[in-house]
Amino acid sequence: MNNLPQLQVVGLTWGHVSWDLLALPPQDIILASDVFFEPEDFEDILTTIYFLMHKNPKVQLWSTYQVRSADWSLEALLYKWDMKCVHIPLESFDADKEDIAESALPGRHTVEMLVISFAKDSL
Predict the structure, then answer these.
(1) Which entry of 63, 86, 93, 110 is 20 to 30 Å from 73 by CA?
(2) Molecular function (GO) terms listed (predicted)?
(3) Where are the beta strands (DSSP E) in the chain?
(4) What is the pTM assigned to this prediction?
(5) Which domain, by its residues, includes 58?
(6) Is 5 within a domain?
């Protein structure tokens, strides 16, 4: 719809390696939105990202998420999968206001932006 050249979209199930996923060339950036919704899915998400990072150790996952519980954390799983996470303040790109793109988020919700990559610069 945005006339972006060479943009490939692949549907996937977190934690499962499909033929489409295997056929992907190395990626530079993986964009995701609010994928960290249910804690029982967190490891499947990171497992899939880990697989893609082995194709290109410099790849980064950029994702937004809404904080739903202070008890939900990625820290132990990031450590387990040798990944790191950097939080990007929404105000750093002027996205901390109500009614962005006709949406009520972030509004009074806590929405965060994060970038996940390998903990080391390369394997």
Answers:
(1) 93
(2) methyltransferase activity
(3) 29-33, 60-66, 83-88, 111-118
(4) 0.75
(5) 27-118
(6) no
